[in-house]
User: Fold this.
Amino acid sequence: MAPRAAGSAGGNGKKLNALGRAWAGARGGGKNELDDDLAAWGIKTPERFKKAAQRPEVVVWPWNAEAFDVFRDCASQWRYLSPPMASPVALGIERSQLESTMRMLGVKDMRETLRKVQHIEAGALEVMKG
Assistant:
């Protein structure tokens, strides 16, 4: 899954959450409209189309690209809780690391970028926590 830039308008928290879920390895779990359309005509979906439908395309809108860059640069900076006799649980990205990364990248509006990164992080946590 390689994110790509898009050129049309409209970004919001849902798109950012979806980006985080895709980054964390989520698969499209929604309704497969191709199967429904083909079945309506009595056609069985070829396997190659089923495999392609399982890999969701991820779009990084231009106004979200800076936040995704910060998120991706902090990918190794997750804080985990390690309870005894249990698997570690992801809590989120270290905020101090986000701030220093934004400074190094020269982010002008750090507050807005942090808000966007938190949306991406929420989507990733949704997948990571199962």
Q: What stands out?
A: The two ends are 20 Å apart (CA to CA). Strands lie at 4-5, 59-60, 78-81, 89-93. Residues 4-10 have pLDDT under 50 and may be disordered.
